[in-house]
Amino acid sequence: MSVEIPKLTIALGAVGIPQGDVIEARVHLGATKEVSSWELLLQNWNSKYSPNGAYPLSVGQDGYICIGRGVNVPQIITTRTESVKYESTPTENYVRVAGRCWGEKLFRRVVTKTYANQKGEDIVKDLMDYYVGLSHVRGNTELVEATDTTYTKLEYENTPVWDILKYIAESADKQGVIGYDFRVAPDGKFEFFQRNSKTSPVSLSEKIEQSEYRKDIHRVRNKVTIYGVADKSVPSDKDAWTESLTPSEGDWSATSGSVSLDTSVKMKGSASIKLYAQNLYYGSALFTLDAGKEVNANLYPLLNLWIIREAAYNGQGDLSLFDRTGKRAARPFTVGKDEWFKIEHKVGEKNADGWNVESGFDWNYIWAIRIALFFDGVGTGSFWVDSLFFGGRRYASTQEDSASQSAYGLRELVDTDEELYSDNECMLRAKAVLAQLKDPAEYLTVRSTVIDYGNTPLLPGDKIQVALPNENVNAYFRILSVEYFVDAKTQTLEITLELGRETPLLADYLYALRSKTDHLSRHKVARMM
């Protein structure tokens, strides 16, 4: 197959580079995981490109490189010169010039800012407009495409722009699929678009001269554990134990005084537990769990309750936990009068030093909780308890694929997603991640010196159809990177494509949150960076 020889148009700053001076030209285009780069090896006749020459080249210059065939010589990259190196012999002079595209601006700035309740595309535009200085509009077309993701709160301190962009690209979703790509286009415009949404018009049919097809299990994970927010509690309704004297898991009694259900004084819900003591040294309410309903305080490491007291009590109290054998762990507390006070204490073996623990006490089986308040001498008065629960456990789900484990061995992934507020949401997330990662990714490297792309160069982030009958491959692959290499000696333009194909990460778990409260409705909270 015959093709026209490559044509070059190059400008570095105000210096136009004649094609006859070019020995080699290499342009590597990348997206999302890397920015594009370039390198030129030039004849330096009469030292004209040297500092004291007629056309000196210097670092910091902007420019462009166009590569094509025949009359079609489209721009491939907008350049920033970052390195100039002179190479000389007694008879020859060369200069090697290299740099990156305007994407190097993405690495210049750090961000200290909080984004609250903002869509993914708005955050990206803000970064481009106020930190990077890259245009994201071509003609009248906005190049930062919309997402379906609102970020509840992203808080950054001296965080590189590049890191924030990668987070948004990796986490934002559109119509049920997670993942965006971003790149600096050949004309220097910044583009942000849903992964696999752009298709290259270039045909590779019968133009692939060399190919390497491989499957890669490095990314395979076939046992996925997803943890959610540390808000799982017993009972799951954090107010249930104080809405009745006989809730489903146990019952209330008094060890000093009398207990009743009070619907007029409450912190949450419709009622609280009232303890009334008359002519006693203290009042004491006891909540006892039914057999088999004991709480494992090692799994639920926080004890929470609200208390309000009358002025007759002196404010000094005692909080006691009993295990199923009756052994006790206790600690004092203090509350003011006539207003609700929240009491929250860490529990479990890791937090035992905050308690007076009887020898042999078993934190795995909390059987009863006693709340006592004291008088100065003998007194009469009431106090109320509301919203008693054990919490602090993370929601979680583990999903596995036995076929993948048999084929590739057990390969685990554990992740924490603070936006997930139930075991079911963790399960949906784990299933989505497992579906994406349980099978190997496919990769292709293809090379050709006969591809003619006309005025539509091959760009990273685009998908392109590839057919390799010998490998039984006929599918769309995403262009991970593309390299253009012009060799003046052989007068060839060799194009190397790195291609990848993997299962998309579905966002179905996000849609399951739509029926929840507003802060769960497909909103994300970022990890601190």
Précis, in short:
With 529 residues, the protein is mainly β. It has helices at 120-132, 161-171, 402-408, 423-437, 508-511; strands spanning 6-12, 15-17, 22-30, 37-43, 62-69, 75-88, 93-101, 110-119, 137-138, 141-142, 150-160, 173-174, 177-178, 180-184, 190-194, 210-216, 223-227, 232-234, 250-256, 258-262, 272-289, 302-309, 313-323, 328-334, 341-346, 356-357, 366-393, 396-400, 412-416, 441-448, 463-468, 473-487, 492-501, 505-506, 523-525.
Keywords:
Phage tail proteins - horseshoe like beta roll fold; Phage tail protein beta-alpha-beta fold; 529 residues; 12-stranded antiparallel sheet; 5 domains; mainly beta; 10-stranded antiparallel sheet
The helix tally amounts to: 5
What is the domain tally? 5
How far apart lie the N and C ends? 53 Å
| Helical residues, percent | under 10%
**In the CATH scheme, what's the topology name of the largest domain?**
Jelly Rolls
CATH class of the largest domain: Mainly Beta
Examine the secondary-structure arrangement and name the CATH architecture of the largest domain: Sandwich
Q: How much beta, percentage-wise?
A: over 45%
| Radius of gyration from the alpha-carbon trace, in angstroms | 34 Å
**Nearest-integer average pLDDT:** 92
**Poorly predicted regions:** 510-529
Q: What's the main sheet like?
A: 12 strands, antiparallel
Structural class given helices, strands, pairing? mainly beta
Total E-strand runs: 35
Shape: elongated
By CATH, the superfamily of the largest domain comes out as Galactose-binding lectin
